[in-house]
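Here comes just one.
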Amino acid sequence: MANTFKLKSKANVGVTTVGIYTSPASTTTVVIGITCANVSGGSINVGVGVSRGLNGDDISLLKNVPIPQGSSLEVMSGNKVVIQTADTVTAKSDVNNSLDVALTIMEIT
């Protein structure tokens, strides 16, 4: 089994939920860290979740969490989340073009 560390990111996330990363076929992925940065001119509320591709049990890791202007939030705080083939890490904000998301992962193939 090969372990590969990667950084996946998405800039200017807004009010529509977007996929940050989808785990490929035959891959288990460990989410090591998620950083959300407010790049807008005011406070925003953000959500981060996992869309379970094969079983449909979508979950929220954060829901309507405020991030003040010019601040960032480290979501994982030492914890890890394991996602499987076809699972997608998602994010959204309550303000258009206001959120940058960085996702640090390890793919196991």
